[in-house]
Input
Amino acid sequence: MPGLFPARALGYDALMSEISSLFVTRLYRARLAELGKPVDAAELEASCLSIAEDDEAGQAWCEENGYAGYTSYASLADLAWRFPVFKALVKVLDRHVEAFASDLAFDLGEGKLKLDSLWINILPEGGIHTSHIHPHSVISGTTYVAMPEGTSAIRFEDPRLAMMMAAPTRAKDAPRELRSFITIAPDVGDILLWESWLRHEVPMNFAEQDRISVSFNYRWE
Output
């Protein structure tokens, strides 16, 4: 039976114990092209760079807030309306989010999950995106446009970490599902989805080239 192990391995000859996992945190990873019509990767990357160069409001926001690199989060809320490649991207994202919501066994009733926001991230060498969550949404995620060799991955934090109080740290060789932090190194064309309350960060980019991604939030309505 899964979860059972012979406690005699620990010196208890007659005892059998059962350990199960509760309240599992799910992380969805897939190739963007697995669902829906393929998105032109070269056009998506070129569009991200072009938008970043022309978006003076976004550049100003990044400078005022000490954000290394560029994000369109605070300046452009209609990428899917402005650019056909982002419209095509949203159609594919919808399919992946639908699949993840099914895996999560969400009971959406008469409602549905709808795209709330979509934005570009360009992280240069030395750039960092500190630990955060995505309030006011249900599912968040990122698809990866340019991931040069040596660039930073994404790191997720156990949502219970703040409640562990006097608990000791985990051993370095602890099983993956028991670690306090999990690092995922996505490839170009990957999509990651997670529930929006899951805290995450992007450590410093040590690659000389820009790390480019497109992030998004879905709300329930």
Observations:
- Residues 27-220 form a domain with the Jelly Rolls fold (CATH 2.60.120.620).
- The two ends are 41 Å apart (CA to CA).
